[in-house]
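Complex record, two chains
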Amino acid sequence: MEKNGDLIVRTEHLTKCFGKLVAVDDLNLEVHKGEVFGFLGPNGSGKSTTMGMMLGLIAPTSGTVELFGLNIQNYLSKILQRIGAITESIGFYPYLSGRDNLKYIARITGGISSSRIKEVLELVELSGREKDKFSNYSLGMKQRLAIACALLNDPEFVVLDEPTNGLDPAGMKEIRELIIRLGQEGKTIFLNSHLLHEVEQVCKRVAIIKQGKVITQGLVKDLMKKGDTLQIKVNEPEKAMTVLKNINWITSIVREDDKLLIGVKADKYAEISAVLAKESIFVTEMRAKENTLEEFFLEMTEERIND
Amino acid sequence: MIEMIRAELFKLRKRNMTWIMVIVLAAFFCLMFFAIYGVTSSPPDRMPGEAVDAIRASLQFPDAFNMIFSTAGTIGTLLLIILVASSIGNEYGWGTVRQVLTRRGIRYYFVISKLVSFIIIAVIGLLISVIIGFILALITSNLIGSINWDFMTASYIGGLFEKFGWTLFSLLPYILLATFFAFLGRSAIAGIGGGLGFYFIEAIAVGIFNQAGGWLAKIPDYLIGPNVDALMPSSLFTHGPFASAGTLPSTLNASLTLAVYCVVFIVISLYMFKKRDITA
């Protein structure tokens, strides 16, 4: 039944319409085994709808979702046994304690021992507060419980929708480390987060979605290098700017303190050095400028992000 | 499925609301028995002697059993509508429906496990009602006079089981009605409002139809309330809100009509829950 053991998620022409609104439009996505995959996009871009379709909560209008090589419409129950998920809104019973909430989930999942419940509570450092009612938990504690719940069945594939919501910087760091550790353990992670710095640190590959369509996807390191910007330091920046402005294959030139950011293709770097040397301007530092994921994201989506 | 039912019962047991409902049930029984006893111990002057005797008899065995079952049916219906609707509706409000469905994708498991656990709760509630009612009837019977247990034959005990069964069956349409409204509105308020609204508006409608006569007077035969009344043991005081409903339908008509309502509510609830996207 499993067509390709290496492929954990594959969506083909996945589309979801709510009335006239096309929330997800012909989405083709692939996530490979052991990958920490970032799924990014502005608010309302269709991320949660895509996740909903992956988890069987939302029925696609057209197209298919395959997880572990199995079609989700035919093998949902079987697939869910291998998945752990945190959805957009954290859903627990407010009148039950943290431990009882996990106990309930363990019962409906089946095959989960009470020692595993204890183990995941320790993992997210909720052991001391496990008997407190969920309604008395802080937002950060609720988030930790959600993570514990997602890991309860020791899943092969973990879907995380904004897992660091409500956590303080120390908590965010812990979760970041946990995600990295899970990835190292061979688990496949599908991470949806607005915190691009976090995604940059933990994800190997990302896809950016806008208005329901994937506008780009690839390795984080490749995406961050995509910009053709050369950063140089020279002894006479003003003079260098005047010289470079007259060269037609330079697309832009910006001065940032003592640095010049030059829009130019990589094969012209040596030529720039030669042109400046001819004018007795000496380059003291020269390197291709790397975009941050945030810069790249903003460039792609042309939207501001509210963290 | 059995694990899901166990998990559902675990939740209901841990919920304060369930225990508050038991307290309300007990309080209602106490109020009924002692208020009626109060009336019989110092009846108003204008109340005929036969009426006072009939009221006294309803507090003594064996008539007290009818009082117990009809009281349980009336208060049980109202409490179950609230419990069922809040149990389903809050799954949406708390976002737990997503949590459950990302664990067990088979949606009808979710609905069926809830329904089975509600029926188990109804059985337990009915048993508690019988125990509380029995104790109260022992007290009032002793206050009024001595108890003669000669009526307690094997066939009478069999009859009590039958009454228990009919009372339970009469609760089912309302459990499913509240289920239907809670799924329809995806909230506890919709379930409670729809369930209780239907219960009371139907009572008014039945009264109007009966007054109207002609073919309109036939309509109540196919509504829930009069059919529930037809199956419930009759009591002087608690015969649901439909006590004035004229001629009640036959037992066969009542059983079939209520069974049809049950099936329709289950099928629509399952269909709605299966087809709808869980977006929030």
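Note: Chain B touches chain A at residues 3-4, 6-7, 10-11, 14-16, 94-106, 275, 277-280 (CB under 8 Å).
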